[in-house]
């Protein structure tokens, strides 16, 4: 994350440029603060002390017009947010989940989930304004909930996930899979539960195992290590091997 001094006409305005290890880096987040300098100083000190990250301050300020034009990062161009399919959805956030747990009155947010040639775009249904956008190629998988016929989850490379419900869930999931593969993401697939998906991962999403690790997963499915079950080895294999198959090894190497 890169904090940037953002002072077009307002000295109390503080903005952050978020750069992640993913294909949608460069997204801007705008914050207002009456103690901007203190906030940025504390952020730099805490980041260095606890996570050993040196947050750099940009020397140049950013105009409000430039911010509005580039706030979606690599998804800021008109052709990237021009949608060919739109679905009415309800979006559930951590805030909604917390409210539901405390008072049973958690209210999801209405959204239009739109698909462009290269992005998943969330729009406000009243203003039709773009809330956020992410490249289709950063989708890891889609979770089709078995208990709720309307619920689904989108999991992204950055280990981020978004939960929605829709009356057209299955049609929406099919459109997402087609759109992602059309944009070059051939790893996207649909699963029915993420229970074992994340905990079985050996590396970060968006990366593939080296040849030795891949071969070891194959061998463990044939010769299960003591104290483990074959189903666990199958789950670990499925969680770590790309959807379109092995990257280095061949099945014969498991023998």
UniProtKB/TrEMBL annotation:
- Going by the entry's taxonomy, the superkingdom of the source organism is recorded as Eukaryota
A GO-annotated cellular component: endosome membrane
Q: Which InterPro entries match?
A: GRV2/DNAJC13 (IPR044978), GRV2/DNAJC13_N (IPR045802)
- Which residues belong to any copy of the DnaJ homologue subfamily C GRV2/DNAJC13 N-terminal domain? 26-253
Q: Which GO biological process annotations does it have?
A: endosome organization; receptor-mediated endocytosis; regulation of early endosome to late endosome transport
Give the protein's recorded name. Answer: RME-8_N domain-containing protein
């Amino acid at each position: 994350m890169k904090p940037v001094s953002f002072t077009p006409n307002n000295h109390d305005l503080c903005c952050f440029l978020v750069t992640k290890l993913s294909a949608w880096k460069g997204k801007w987040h705008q914050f207002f603060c009456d103690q901007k300098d203190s906030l940025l100083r504390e952020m730099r000190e805490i980041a260095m002390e606890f996570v050993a990250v040196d947050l750099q301050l940009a020397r140049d300020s950013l105009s409000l017009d430039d911010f509005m034009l580039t706030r979606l990062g690599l998804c800021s161009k008109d052709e990237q947010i021009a949608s060919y399919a739109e679905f009415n959805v309800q979006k559930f956030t951590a805030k909604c989940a917390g409210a539901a747990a405390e008072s049973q009155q958690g209210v999801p947010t209405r959204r239009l989930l739109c698909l462009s040639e290269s992005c998943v775009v969330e729009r406000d249904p009243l203003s039709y304004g773009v809330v956020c956008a992410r490249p289709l190629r950063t989708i890891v998988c889609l979770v089709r909930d078995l208990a709720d016929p309307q619920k689904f989850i989108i999991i992204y490379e950055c280990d981020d996930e978004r939960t929605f419900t829709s009356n057209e869930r299955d049609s929406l999931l099919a459109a997402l899979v087609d759109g992602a593969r059309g944009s070059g993401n051939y790893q996207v697939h649909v699963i029915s539960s993420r229970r074992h998906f994340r905990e079985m991962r050996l590396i970060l999403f968006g990366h593939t195992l080296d040849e030795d690790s891949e071969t070891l997963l194959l061998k463990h499915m044939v010769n299960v290590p003591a104290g483990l079950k074959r189903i666990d080895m199958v789950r670990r294999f499925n969680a770590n091997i790309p959807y379109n198959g092995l990257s280095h090894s061949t099945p014969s190497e498991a023998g």
